[in-house]
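seq:
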Amino acid sequence: MKRLALMMLILMAAALAGAAQEGARTPDQKPAEVKYSDNSFARLSFLEGKAYVQRAADLAYEDAQINTPIATGDRIGTADGRLEIYLGLKNYLRLDANSKLDFLDMPKRDANLTRLRGWTGSIYLDVKGMTREKEIEFLTSDATFYLLENGVYRIDIRENKETEILVFSGVVEASGEEGSILVKKDQRLTIAEGRFQGKPSSFFAAADDAFDRFNDSRQAKFDRPFAKRHLSGDLEAYESELDESGDWMYENPFGYVWVPRGMGAGWMPYTNGRWTWLPMAGWSWLPYEPWGWSTYHYGRWHWGLNLGWYWIPMSGWGPGWVNWWWGDDYYGWAPMSYWGYPGVIIDNFYYGRGWRDYRDYPWNSRALTVVRKDQLMARDVRGVALKNDAVRAIGKMSLNDRAPLVRPSSSPRISTESLGGGSRVILRKGGETGDPSAAGATTGQVNPRGRDTQTTTAGGERKIDPKASSSEGGRKVEPQKKGESAPPAKSSPPPERRIRKKIGEGGGAIPGGTGRSDVLGYPSRMANPQGSVSRSGARTDSGSVLDRVYRSITGSSGGTASRGTVSRGSSSSGSGSSSAPRSMPRISSSSSSSSRSSSSSSGRSSSGSSSSGRSSGGSVRKK
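struct:
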């Protein structure tokens, strides 16, 4: 009898332990069925002036800001400013003013390929972390460039004219209609319509213009030495910005932790920012703190009486390391502890290994944030978060590591905006104010009456109020069915490297874009009242409603202006030729991207979809 009672006690203890573990995750464990890698999302790491981001599945643009995540299929453009994007692995991309770029492919768990498509402007590629040849490809209307070594590369795209590449260090393979050619350190090459304009020539590597000096200043920031480094691996690139904004303290049992400076008494993580939706990752936190990318997408936040909130560095990118709760009318979250439990702060004591009753998270915990369902995508969480009395009235809450089963739909309100008072206009998502500090400027409304509880009904979750709108373009939020994974990004099919046709030759747009007509995106210029310029440079008839709206807004036919260039001294070099020489080893331009499937989307500007394997020597097939 005693033995039976003892066995029953052991079984009850095991059951309670298993229940307490529900929702917890070991420190080095990633969410199940993760398709992205640590470098699948680039980060907008620096911005001066104005820039815009167009998501792969969106028609209109939204304002870019520091820490904006960039994914496969996204487009980014600058107006009067410059920006820097961190690609991961110590690789940086920098854009000058009036530049436009598409992200055709970003690394995934099973492929480490980055493919970029430049449309216009000047771009710097500062590459230090490439481990294999051709891990980074850069396409323009004139040529395709395969990076063969780490180095510094500048690409100037003069729209509807030519592309010039300057190699400050490293080696790049330029592939055009006439074959492939190597461009080495301190050499430049110009390509127009797929044809090499002479041989690679030498140039003097000096900071000739403001964009050169901008690139040099950003390089110097990351190359400066540190007396003592606290981060390694993928996190090493964030050491500089963390040192400027906080202090490193030793804390058992984690080692050195980072404590931000200048935070107010009521500050806590995951409040100064907003939630945004990424198709591959789901709900992702967009922090407004300039140092927030590493501290919210890597590691965990804890609290201590002597330190306040501090960050524990850990490897492994995540959209937001929090534990979630949701009920009929509200969403709530708390920073996930090192051990995977929702952190609790009660009476100046931090509980990181689980609260005494996992089914009843304390309403008065200073780590808890709760908002109404129609405020999930509010631009400033601090301004809409519920106060203690309102949280107390909700009742019991049980947090776990699963994000809410809702996602926004693509039906934004769209408005137009003129750039600089000229003929250039963009389509802007409705409600975008460009001011992230405006509390509740716009909200992502989820019907508070909708049954979006963790225990779903037999009929599934209710549809969301179609009148609801979000801060991200007024997009409605509709439920994601239980067990359904986040949909993949609607990226473009792999492009066939065709050469841009001259204006007047007709034809469709060059494949390889994101299926968005240039007239719908920045920085398109209205060429004339009767037509628009497609991405291929061909003049096409344009009598669409959007074209007529644009023309009525701009009030003029406008015109395209070629981008000014900087003259660099050069001399002829015999190290290359307009076609692959016999003495030079012929380099295959084959890539795993040829196996990607092609998918068509509505409203695609291309006259047809195609994908082609690349031939040896990087020859270009002309349509």
